[in-house]
Amino acid sequence: MIKRMTAFLLVFLLLIPVSASMELEEEEISIVEYLDLSEEEEAATISEPDGSRIITITCTGDFTIGGDNRKRKEQSFYKKLKSAGDDINFTMANVRDILKNDNLTLVNFEGTFTDTKYVPDSKKDNSFIFNISPGYVNVLTDNYIEAVSLANNHVMDHGEEGYEETKDTLRNAGIVFSTAEDIGEFTVDGDIRIGMISYLCIDLYDKPVGGYDNLYDKVAADIAAMKKEYDIVIVSFHWGYEKDYKPRDRQKKMGRLAVDSGADLVIGHHSHRMNPIEEYNGVYICYSLGNFCFSGHNKPDDMNSFIFQTRFRISDTHEVSNVGFRIVPIRITSVKDYNNYIPTPITDQMQIVRILNTLKENGKGFGVSEYPLEWE
Known about the structure:
By secondary structure, the protein is α/β, with parallel strands linked by helices. It is built from eight helices and 15 strands. The two termini are 16 Å apart.
């Protein structure tokens, strides 16, 4: 995956100044279209001498495949899919082994699994409408993606019919999904219970919802109730503004509220840009993991992102503690000039350091001070 840097090189490169402007420039990269990432990795669950177990959870940014089926033939994603022999797994070729070697992978599935061409009136003027046929759900099952969050602004692109078909498709494929009303349940090793819930925030923070005066109150109540039932609670938020490189005050307030209410991990999406990570009261808040596999644009102006991985220690009495995290810097493409929908780990050390410096710069005053690339 990522080559280790020598201590000298790392120190030297970290001295390279970064602009306070939050966007990374597109860089020359040395990369082949498909990387050979097959390598021996340790078993997903690590058993400790004291009887505790360490599990690994992987989270990614926006996972959007397919396109607008009202104009399918015109879209580059489907041209790429055709050139891959209609094998949707081409998208995961360079990250599959990363997702394989963990206990749980969670992505934000931003789109629909449906063939309907119905689009509600509220969406007809939208530039971006996403769907893919339910037959391609194997892009998740074949590539070790066990869970998805569905609370986002594209899951209703094809109305209630498309939404229900999406949930049925996931359910029938054995993929765990979560919304604000549907708690996703996943069990590791038969007895470690993980609960997932997800919320669409954007402009809904202060609006009444579900019998509560505002979304803050609902989130706090939901998480507190979940923590009584699950060993680990993961909360996903679709929030903020597109192209933001750092969170706004309402995101910080909501993320910290989630932690105070019992969340063990907070994952954010929507900006399509990577944001800093905050460690708040011992819990990681990933404000945005940017894009992951993104068919919404064949050349976005920022194709850098990262995969987030964290580990939890579960004692023999099911007490849970955080054991740290690492990131895998990626580009959402395996080629330099355009998005070919194949997220790929970055191997160029200069570019990795620029990403790390950008995250640190944008997280001044609240973000973590270091972004490990390897497990300690």
